[in-house]
Design a protein that fits this description.
The complex is a heterotrimer of chains A (321), B (391) and C (264).
Chain A (H helix, E strand, L loop, with lengths): L2 E5 L9 H10 L4 E8 L3 H11 L4 E6 L9 H14 L3 E5 L2 H14 L2 E9 L5 E5 L4 E7 L4 E5 L14 E5 L11 E7 L13 E5 L9 H11 L2 E4 L1 H5 L20 E5 L5 H7 L4 E6 L5 H5 L2 E4 L2 H18 L1
Parallel strand pairs in A: 1-2, 1-4, 2-3, 3-9, 4-8, 5-8, 11-12, 11-13, 13-14, 14-15
Antiparallel strand pairs in A: 5-6, 6-7
Helix pairs in contact in A: 3-4, 5-9
Chain B lengths: L20 H17 L4 H6 L7 H8 L16 H14 L1 H21 L2 H13 L4 E4 L15 E5 L2 E12 L6 E8 L2 E8 L5 E5 L11 E12 L11 H35 L1 E2 L2 E2 L4 H29 L5 H25 L11 H13 L4 H13 L6
Parallel strand pairs in B: 1-4
Antiparallel strand pairs in B: 2-3, 3-7, 4-5, 6-7, 8-9
Helix pairs in contact in B: 1-4, 4-5, 4-7, 5-6, 5-7, 7-8, 7-9, 7-10, 8-9, 9-10, 9-11
Chain C lengths: L1 E6 L1 E3 L21 E3 L1 H17 L2 E7 L4 H11 L3 E5 L9 H13 L6 E5 L10 H9 L3 E11 L2 E8 L2 E8 L2 E5 L11 H7 L4 E4 L1 H4 L17 E8 L7 E4 L4 H11 L4
Parallel strand pairs in C: 1-4, 1-6, 4-5, 5-11, 6-10, 7-10
Antiparallel strand pairs in C: 2-3, 7-8, 8-9
Helix pairs in contact in C: 2-5, 3-4
The chains are: A alpha/beta (321), B alpha+beta (391), C alpha/beta (264).
Amino acid sequence: MPDVLVLVDHDGERVHKCTYELLTAARRLGDPAAVVVGTPGTAARLEEPLARHGATSVYAAESTEADEFLATPAVDALELAVREVSPAAVLVSATTDGKEVAGRLAARLDGGLLIDAVDVDSCGVATQVVFGGSYTVRSQVTHGLPVITLRPGSFEPEERPVEARARQLALPPVDRVASARVTARRAALAGDRPELTEATVVVSGGRGVGGADGFKVVEQLADALGGAVGASRAAVDAGYYPHQYQVGQTGKSVSPQLYIALGISGAIQHLAGMQTSKTILAVNKDPEAPILGLADYAVVGDLFAVAPQLAQEVAARRAVG
Amino acid sequence: MSGMPLKDPLDLLDIDSVLTDEEREIQATVARFLADRVRPHIGEWFENAHFARELAPELGKLGVLGMHLEGYGCAGTNAVSYGLACLELEAADSGFRSFVSVQGSLSMFSIWKWGSEEQKQEWLPRLAAGEAIGCFGLTEPDFGSNPSGMRTRAVRDGDDWILNGSKMWITNGGIADVATVWAQTEDGIRGFLVPRGTAGFTTQDIKQKMSLRASITSELYFDDVRLPDSARLPLAEGLRGPLSCLNEARFGILFGAVGAARDSIQAAIDYADTRVQFDRPISAFQLTQKKLADMTVSLGGAALLAVHLGRLKDQHRIRPEQISVGKLNNVREAIAIARECRTVLGANGISLEYSPLRHANNLESVLTYEGTGEMHTLVVGQAITGYPAFR
Amino acid sequence: MNIVVLVKQVPDTAAERTLSEADHTLDRENADLVLDEINERAAEEALTLKEAVGAEVTVVSMGPDSALDAIRKVLAMGADRGIHICDDRLHGADVVTTAKVLAAAVRTVADVDLVLAGNATTDGQASAVPAVVADLLGLPQLTHARELTVDAGRVRVERETENGEATLDAPLPALVSVTEKINEPRYPSFKGIMAAKKKPVETVDLDDLFPDADADADEAGFRVTRTGVVEAVPRPARATGTRVTDDGSAGRQLVAYLIAQKLV
């Protein structure tokens, strides 16, 4: 089986769940080979969980400056790895950074880029949902190396322990004229709730929540369900909730098992980021709100009455269970 | 079988196709500004009788104020573009179109056309930028259609003038930084620029209106107001001075009326498409279709008439009686359309959430100001028969 | 400074979007096209810099004849000149080709200090284009900027993505893509609209940009896409769900539904 390169998404200590999803998808196409870009020692720390999820090789592309520059080290590392192993495909998570890395890699290799896939089969045919969910498109690469970015949440990560071979890639020094240095980072505040793109339940609030205070109701329901909190662009623009929680075209794309939209009208930009959720519930006062037409269960009503009642019922059930 | 309703009733006749790219862009820019800044609030402003004065500098930045004038910070567009801006402004609310008409066509035009170079330099750039607001005092409590009988008088006192009298129904009056005031003198009617704060000049806003609520309407009082001769508009002699300004403003109005009508019909089409009675949208019923069809036909005619008059104006060939035809027809049709649209909306039509009744109420003012429908009828009658029948 | 702004015309987001039957590309004929909203903010940023430090702003757009409207709009906002890349052979171009073509157009502008773009467009998913253009031009990518400062030959941006915020720093020349939060774009003034007609717009095609196009590429002499659509189907509307009006018990009904679906 040919290798399939997987770019590892990590914070230096922990492999992000979306990487395990990539490893699962990669097995359909060949032998998953994880590429870890980071400061020296990172790959060694991450090798065990990667191998547990089926990485047959772990490539260490390490340098002291690898985490100081945006995107470029990852593109350089993948380019090197491709030239070294001639993989069947390269898989990258369809995060903001991942899409940029994948695009740059495809351009350097004159390869075929498939962005934001929600599925990929053993022939390399990727499924994409476009235009806010109004079309399903199945595409494949017709020239050059397939570079595929997979939307987080599209695959169920599986543990498939293997023995991983540790390999080294000689990362070149970063070209300072062609790279942007990251001089400060302020990570999104995580809190106790699950990461939006990793959560199985997402409860989102929109303009209908009415203000920052109103988001307490959204948070309480999310907490009752053990879910993450999201927000529509309208709510973020209005200053009700921080940008990092924005779900939609210009925020995060999510595909949880359960998505609950509270006071969200359902602009196409929002739908684009959540329409692939398995089950959608919506509560909105406006019977005309487009999101109600999309929901598996739609409630026309006041979210401030419905959401607390739901949270209470769920909490009561959990207490019993 | 259901299709998509027409988004813009003017598309039925492709009215856009008789406009240039530049005219369309100017129209689209005004429409977008209003969609962003005015439409979300206009119902509330109308209800609270609030004029959003803070938008004046923004309108100035766009170039709306005195846009058809050349020089002195004015944009210098053609007349059709000015008309299209008025169309969009009135489609949002006649209060804004009235503000722009008075600022550009009455206040600024009177200075631009009849003023001294010093007066132009002093006022036009600030008025164009919306930093200063102007008004225009011609109508009096007892003299509307017959301004020549006005009682406001300016009398020489040495090198100065002493102004006494009052003006009524003056748009922008209470917030104006400068008023163009027309008064009787020994030599006939003359115009004066009276800055706000001049001793003896006071204003009183007219409250409790049922029309043009998002606009300021005031009474102006002049009590021994002393003005230097440099306040007089040197080139204006006789009633021709104010009437030339009114012709400018009427030109904007005959486009504006098209805007109010279009917006009303849009509201009616949208509503009729979503309002279901007897298991189908009411737009699928013949009586509703007759209303919508008649209104859209009449709208198309009004729009083409407006553009035609605009082209004549741009060729400097337009005659006052032609403007009378335009104002008479377009305002008359617009108010009928707005009222009919209200009936399509049923009970919802009386709510401020929908525009037609607001437009209909505004158009009551528009029907009367800048020459009543009756006066324009007689202007047209005279043009046809040769007989003046005004008195 | 010389600033190039990359802009794109997109279907009005309010309108329904369809894929053409023939080749599964976005059906632009049947949609109202407008200058993409985030691109407008990129243009605004360029014009703000122009006013602050002086710059010549070139606006570049790739697309059919109608893309000229997007260019004119930015010229009306205050940009100085335009480059319109118009070539029927570019129909259906993929991300890589789009970026290659845009990069080639940027290269025709002398001494570029800054390339500005929107961080995403509302019509496609390829928010990667700006980063790819940067790579092809050998410029640092400062993407997803919420704030932009240019000073002493360097550019600094506040970057905001789903992973949090970061400060980026790079020497000029550089490429910056902006988010919808960076500014409020100005409305073109009437004077600007009238002046835009007189500003130069150069129309170029693939032969101008790639005089020695790939010999082994497609028959057209240029590789337009490296991917192919196997199948495109309108997604079936999600099965119509349950709809209730809250009578005071909707919360309890919801929990019953979640239990039935094994979601709690």
